Structures are given as C-alpha cells and as structure tokens.
Amino acid sequence: MLDLAIIGGGPAGLSAGLYATRGGLKNVVMFEKGLPGGQITSSSEIENYPGSAEILSGLDFMAPWSEQCMRFGLKHAMEEVSRISKNADGTFTIALSGGKSEQAKSVIVCTGSTPKKANFEGEAEFFGKGVSTCATCDGFFYKNKEVVALGGGDTALEEALYLSHICSKVYLVHRRDTFRASPSTIEKVKNNPKIELILNVTVKKAYGDKTGLNGIIVVDAEGKERDIAVPGVFVFVGMNVNNAILKQEDGSFLCDMDENGNVVVDLNMHTSVKGLFAAGDLRIKASKQVVCAAGDGATAGIQALEYVNH
C-alpha cells in the first residue's frame, strides 16, 4: 500500500512530492499520465516567480523541477487515474484506466485546470485548424501573419505580447473595455504598436474552409459587425477545474465542493475527508499562479506526512 498517492504532476504535485518524501515518507507515487510539469509548460514566459530573475518559457522553467522533486524518492507513474474512492478502513482506492487500481493511506489531488471554451460558432469546428488555446505551441505557425487573441485576463494579455514578437499584428478582442490583468501587463499591451485593442465586442462566429480558419466576425452592443480576416485565433477566457476523478459512481463528489466545482479546503489543504488533500488550481479561491500552486503542494505534502505518521 502506498503511503501517499499524488494525482497530478504540475507545480503543486511536484512540490507535494518533494516535501512529503524529504520529510520521510518512503512509498510516495505521483500519478501523471504525461511528463511532469503541468499546464504551465505551455506558457510563453514566466517572469514573476520569486527568486527566478531570468525570464523563461514555462517548459524551460519547469525542466529542473522533476529532478529536484524526485531526488528524495518520489516515484512517477505514467498512469491515468479515473476515480478516487474512500474505503471502509479509511484508506483510499486509486482506480486507474485499464481496470488496475492502487491502495493508498493518503491522497493529494493536484489535477489543475484546463482552458475554457469561448463557445462561439465555429470554435469547435476550427479547433486545431486555426483556433488554439496555446500561443507557445502554435504561435510559430503564424509567423509574420495577423492573429486574434481573445480574452481580458493576465493570460490573454501576456500571450498577446508573446504573439506580437512572432506575428505581424495581434488583435486583442475583449468583451469589456477594462482588463483583469496586472497594471504592468496592461501598460505593455497598450504601448505595443503591433497590438490593436478591439473592446466591448463578442465573437459571433469563426469562418473558414477545408484548409482552415479564415477569420472571425465580432459584434458590438449595438449590433454592428466587424470582419477580422485572420488565419489564427487564440482563446484565453479562463479555466475549468479538473475534478472528474473525485466523482463517485452515484454522481456525488468524494468531498465537499463549491458551486463552481472547486474543492473546499482549509488553510492546510485538508478537504472534508480525512486523509484527502487538494492543492493548486483545483481548490477554492486558488490564485492560479505557479508560486501559489507550489506553496499549496508543499503545505499538502507536509500535512499528508503528519497524517500518515500519526
């Protein structure tokens, strides 16, 4: 039986593994189907992590984390977890795809979040053929071309800035006239001559042909339409938490959740179920920043260590 199962291999999961194993837990496995690093590996640049003065891509930033966090015995299982359930004796069953399962004394869930869809006509049709949620992954395909960045938060503005270094022009489309990003980022965007702000509009539809996207049509509050002919649209309109593995067979959740599907935790990352912890983007009131996820993971790892030992 595992002392601790960690579900998710982003900053929260890796940090949890580091603190739990360095604290003395011997049988700790991090379940992450892909390579560790999490969603931040698709970010174009990290410039706000304390102590890291160099601006790095998310992929480069996360590269040394695995080596450091596994130095004390954390194991990585490239398995997909389908469900976590609580046993009568207080332990947990970790159901894996393919019908296998593992037993664990404690569990930390760090499954993070995934980008939301903007839900405009043609978004799904042209996803991967002009519509993207990852500037780092797909920005290169639009070198010296015009693109749209959709959204008004930190991610949207940061990715618009990143795209401006690659593309000839970036149309930043937002449904309001104000942004939810940090003031310094807003200032950079407003002072960038390659970024045009298109505010107080919504996307009516994306259009194209068999070869891919040809553009989008936006509409303002008065119904006036504008056709923006671009081969690429990058959607950054928020995140959905990945909570599916906490759903039980009867449709209920294993632990308490809020109305938006975030896991309810206390300051020590304890859920309503003893031995079950949640960290990072999945929890209530998460700041959705790497440094905060890492802090959550460290706290959860320490708490799991104490739980198993006592």
Description:
With 310 residues, the protein is an alpha/beta fold. It has 2 domains: 2-115 and 239-309, FAD/NAD(P)-binding domain; 131-235, 3-Layer(bba) Sandwich (FAD/NAD(P)-binding domain). Helices cover 22% and strands 27% of the residues. It has 6 helices and 17 strands. It has helices spanning 11-22, 58-69, 135-138, 154-164, 183-190, 290-309; strands at 2-7, 28-31, 75-77, 81-86, 92-96, 101-109, 113-115, 131-132, 146-150, 169-173, 195-198, 201-209, 212-220, 225-228, 232-235, 239-241, 276-278. Strands 1, 2, 3, 4, 5, 6 and 17 form a 7-stranded mixed sheet that branches. Strands 8-15-9-10-11 form a 5-stranded parallel sheet, with helices on one face. Strands 12-13-14 form a 3-stranded antiparallel sheet, with no helix packed on it. Helix 1 (11-22) runs parallel beside helix 2 (58-69) and helix 1 (11-22) runs parallel beside helix 6 (290-309). The radius of gyration is 21 Å and the shape is elongated. The model has no long low-confidence stretch (mean pLDDT 95).
